[in-house]
């Protein structure tokens, strides 16, 4: 599994500026009591707050909801431009296999 490094470059809710976490392994489990920051941590991975109105029309309006966070996978920085809304299959790169029936 690749190494994921998350560094917060601003204060965001429970997390202080400079918060840094490194994750590694085939499976990462995020658990904690109510109010411990699980959803806030996921928002950091999404690079966007959870308070985005549904009627956002353009990137300029979206900019004020972005979280200033650095995300690296194996020391390669990932930007929010690299993160796209795709299907689960696209995100995990499953190749569709076709069987040939004689």
From TrEMBL:
Name of the protein in its database record: Rad50/SbcC-type AAA domain-containing protein
